[in-house]
Amino acid sequence: MISDRPIGRTLFLFFVIALLALPSDAQQRGGGPSGRDNGRDGGNEPPNPRDRGTAVTNRTPEYIEVTPAPRPAPRKPPPRRGPVVLPGDRVVAMTDEVRLGDIHTALGPGSFALAPDGRPEYIAVGSTDDADAIASALVGAGAAILRQRDYPNLGRRAFIVDLQALPLPDARQVLAAGAPGASFDIHALYRYAEAAPRLYAAALINQPDSPACTLPGEVRIGLIDGPVAVDHSALLGAALTTHSVLKANDPPVPPDHGTAVAALLIGQDDSGTFAGFATGAQLFAASAFSRHGVRVATHVERIGAALDWLVANDVQLINMSFTGPVNAALDDLLAATAGKGAILIAAAGNEGREIDVYPAAAEPVISVTAVDAGLRRYRSANTGAHIEFAAPGVDLYVARRQGGHYASGTSYAAPIITALAARLVTQGARSAGAVRTQMRDQTRDLGEPGRDIQFGWGLVRATTC
Hints:
By secondary structure, this protein is an alpha/beta fold.
């Protein structure tokens, strides 16, 4: 008799095996052993970060179909129109709405090149292939081409244009039609990016407007220095007489120092840059310096010849922006000059120590030191009991052979005192003693109270002419 128990066991095993063979829900979803898919759960999973920028469509458990996202349309570049830069950093586009008169007003005089008829020049630039079209379009519309210039390495040609009676909008229209690749703008001027000179000396001595003081022509000032550039713009209209006491074989020196001192005395410049402090006076300049080895110097023989020439010309004041050792022979010549009635003024020197130097330390000579815009003594200025007055002499913008430059030294303070003394002469101070007294009355005390070895009596202030 066969038992049914083995058959039941066999059927049971067959049923279990069949169940195990069926795919599970987790396996259909592509999950891991735990039944999780590391954050990607069927059709609700977020896009893979590597799929950014794509659109996801038609997702199924078996595959993912992706299509590229639409790209934004390329931006159209703005039309090429050069700007007109206005004062105050405002910019006006050179559009058709900007009238020619507006350009004149906006830029101002001196901001663009002028055609021979006084109208502004314009410039058209294009490739050499478009050059004929540019010229034809402009000339055909009534403009005149003044000149042209090729830039072969750039592949460009420039036309300098006078619009004549052609309105600016019309010029743009004809170029846009006939040579659309051309650039067109006013022929602007560009200048060095440098600041105007800093001028403080006149204000420091209480004279805000130095050109306003003009001395009468009968005032005669003498100068012993190097040569003077008589063709400098500040001296062209001045009353200047020059004389050299050098020998024929004496090596000449540049005229920078002498020109600076001469302009500080009698320079004429409405802008104030090179305006002298004794404008209107006559200047007699004796050239006494030459090259000695690598240095520029003079000697007692020449100084004596210069003093003699100046006395012969009846000068009332003599400026000496030079220094050297105490010397008995020079002392005698200075005393003889003072005895003829000349008022002697000299620079204190720039050795930066307490020392007596000539001619400044000689008894008849008024000795001058230099201060800066902050009323500080020039760091290299000499000191001593002979110092009498101070004047601006640090970072002054002074004339030289061509143009000007900044310079420092007691050499440049001395002519300011000489010029102020010349004003006192016109008011009746006929002697060195009278000038000293009146200058003391108009000084601003600096340093220790009263006279001291650094500033003397202090900073001399200007009086009315």
